[in-house]
Amino acid sequence: MRSTRSTTRKRSLADLLTGLTAVLGLVVLGLFCPAVAQARSPGVLATGLHIADGRLVEGNGNDFVMRGVNHAHTWYPSRTQSLADVKALGANTVRVVLADGHRWSANSATDVANVVAQCKANRLICVLEVHDTTGYGEDSAAGTLDEAADYWIGLKSVLAGQENYIVINIGNEPWGNTDPAGWTAPTIAAVQKLRNAGFQHTIMVDAPNWGQDWQGVMRANAQSVYAADTTGNLIFSIHMYSVFDTAQEITDYLNAFVNAKLPIVIGEFGGPADQYGDPDEDTMMATAVQLKLGYLAWSWSGNTDPILDLALNFDPKQLSSWGQRIFNGVNGIAQTSKEATVYGGTSADTQAPTAPGTPAASAVTATSVTLGWTAATDNVGVAGYDVVRISGGTETDAAASTTNSVTVTGLTASTAYTFAVYARDAAGNRSARSATVNVTTGSAPTGICSVAYRIVGEWPGGFQGGITLRNTGTAAINGWKLVFAFADGQTVSNMWGGTATQSGGTVSVAPASYTSTVPAGGSVDVGFIGTEGATNTAPTAFTLNGSACTLS
């Protein structure tokens, strides 16, 4: 969880060392591989969204793969327009934060009914969750899963009959790092309490360890929890933040559930680095696509630290770099989301868009290139574009965009590449491939640093900027000062990832504790909110500890 009230990540070094001991013990005992789930008789399957053969499916049996975001409704109850905004950006699901009254004021039955109606009006699947349980056992303010189950039972009149449209996430991150083994029995009891009350909905359960299960309790006990649900309509939710900072950790965890035919979704995840580590969101998203698993990014807007805001100020026109990654990046929502068929997601539209124009390359650097092309046309409308890298007969996803241009990053210096573009519509029809363009990246910089400066979003009088500082040398940089100058009177009003001081147009940035070390070949990101006048020219030079950096 990244609470709207705090973005603190709940993982101390002592906890991790203790957890590592527990994890090693589980590996030795062979408990980290859940047994294969036993199939339920079709006769006990719930109507609407349900589980079949380890996968979340709709009432008609079609796979449903969640692609969406979390929205902090309980703290921002007037922001229901957010549901329409995330839908317009391509999401098919929204996870809605509610409260049962233990810690925050309870969302009433009328309010919850309105949320469900808004989800349906915007053709979204709605995951409803109680947030009061967050960190139980470690956070004294947290409520229990039993209390959360009682809250859901109190809402039965507005939830019954909505099985096609909603999933009930009993409680958010319902156990902290203190004795997480205590998670299993209350989780089973809460599931059974809802079933005994007549709920036939698909139920979602979160992991302990503040949702990240770094001690492996959910992974080891998933089969017993699943078996306790007589309907079999239970899906597990793992939250992936800085605990999951390597590809191996991510793929191992998700494949353990898939191989056991136990349904799982990434119910929350983050990408921006913090003092505890740098989550590997690229692998999270790529593995979810490969395994056809759902993911729900944290969170739309309203975080105390905007580093985890997908949109600033709840404005879909002000997507942060994190928001651009989630909605428009490779394996992102725009590229991979499909609307639930209950809303007509298998529409009669079978006509593909026309092929985009031949891409043209500009702004070629050692590690990136900007591609632009003539827009495609479609009988209904073009939803987006997929840029692919071609090598022989193989295509690799390179970028995605909702407009007819994109910057492809992460390239290797002095290397020849071939790119092409596909267009796609909302029904999932894909165009023929465009003609190709050949690009050779520039030479590697000779200095020790490169800087990528970008405008993430602009609005009257203000903007969000992002800076990626890359260490191009062979040794780690420990402690740094980055200096640049604005030419048009811009000022920095708020910064994350660093601390800014400004004199006239000159800005000096000192690192935050978690960005102070830049490993050789690695990078750190700094974001900021700034004010602007009529023009907003990008800085043309950057120095790191007094030495010039190249621009990328």
UniProtKB/TrEMBL annotation:
It is an enzyme of class 3 (hydrolase). One of its GO terms (molecular function) is polysaccharide binding. The keyword Signal applies. Residues 355-444 form the Fibronectin type-III domain. One of its GO terms (biological process) is cellulose catabolic process. SMART domains: CBD_II, FN3. It comes from the Bacteria. It catalyses: Endohydrolysis of (1->4)-beta-D-glucosidic linkages in cellulose, lichenin and cereal beta-D-glucans. Residues 442-552 form the CBM2 domain. Keywords: Carbohydrate metabolism, Cellulose degradation, Glycosidase, Hydrolase, Polysaccharide degradation, Signal. Signal peptide: none annotated. Its EC number is 3.2.1.4. PANTHER family: ENDOGLUCANASE, LIPOPROTEIN. Belongs to the glycosyl hydrolase 5 (cellulase A) family. This is Endoglucanase.
